[in-house]
Design a protein that fits this description.
Blueprint lengths: L1 H4 L1 H6 L6 E5 L3 H7 L1 H9 L2 E5 L6 H14 L4 E4 L18 H7 L13 E4 L5 E2 L17 E8 L4 H15 L3 E8 L6 E8 L2 E9 L8 E8 L3 H10 L6
Parallel strand pairs: 1-2, 2-3, 3-4
Antiparallel strand pairs: 4-5, 6-10, 7-8, 7-10, 8-9
Helix pairs in contact: 3-4, 7-8
Length: 242
């Protein structure tokens, strides 16, 4: 929150991305016994999944599934001895939602959208991977930290802004990240929001293109989120409620 609230810090430093290093061999055990591990995965923009040479392909797939159950939007890099080009970690612009949406227009699509995962084999070549199942809940483990993707049409700003303020104040300590792009009633421009805990900020991004569907998408990543309550509240903000 310091980067959002402290003007002096913001003037001298930029929050580029949150990078988490995870041990492929022991991550599942840590997720089961340490809430902090789930929080770190939930907050991450980039997950460096290290020591992949110490697990079987089946174990690695399960580790990645667990990561996805917590944070479906993080970029995962498979590594051995954390060998990874710095440009895969630095200058990510993860808190610049305008940039993210320019590079990946479907970033906020939620469960139906495939995200790239960089797989590093022994000779250093990268391979794209797209076959993960993006569902929030699994019989083997119901994570405390989950991601929630919401979608609606045009929103009534008179309803949305009081609602999002109520949500961030009520659930703030448990909201690790939120980000979204909104279509506001009678507004010709896309409105981008992002936040951490109880701090939220927003601004207009650019005019809607004629060929674009006016659609609002919002993603929450947090602990013990009341999904039904949040979904219902968001839907009620729509100009034409669902």
């Amino acid at each position: 929150q310091t980067f959002f609230m402290d003007d002096e810090v913001r003037a001298k430093a930029k929050l580029d991305a949150v990078v988490t290093v995870a041990d492929a061999k022991h991550l599942i055990a840590r997720l089961d016994d340490a809430p902090e591990a789930e929080e770190q995965i939930g907050f991450a923009d980039v997950v460096i999944l290290n020591k992949t040479d110490l697990v079987t392909p089946e174990e690695l797939a399960e580790v990645e599934r667990r990561i996805r159950a917590i944070n479906e939007h993080a970029v995962i890099h498979r590594t051995e001895r954390c060998a990874l080009p710095l440009d895969r970690v630095l200058d990510r612009g993860a808190f610049d939602l305008d940039r993210i949406l320019t590079l990946d227009p479907e970033f906020l699509e939620g469960e139906d959208h495939d995200h790239d995962h960089d797989h590093h084999d022994h000779d250093g070549h990268d391979h794209d991977h797209h076959d993960h199942d993006h569902h929030h809940h699994h019989a083997a483990h119901d994570p405390l930290v989950t991601s929630l993707s919401l979608r609606a049409g045009d929103l009534d700003p008179q309803r949305f802004f009081p609602w999002i303020e109520q949500i961030t104040q009520g659930f703030g300590p448990d909201i690790l990240r939120l980000k979204g792009i909104l279509a506001l009633k009678d507004d010709p421009e896309r409105y981008v929001v992002q936040g951490v805990h109880m701090i939220i900020e927003g601004n207009h991004q650019r005019p809607w293109r004629e060929d674009e569907k006016h659609e609002s998408r919002l993603v929450f990543i947090g602990r013990r989120l009341d999904a039904d309550l949040i979904k219902a509240g968001f839907a009620a903000c729509a100009v034409t409620p669902a």
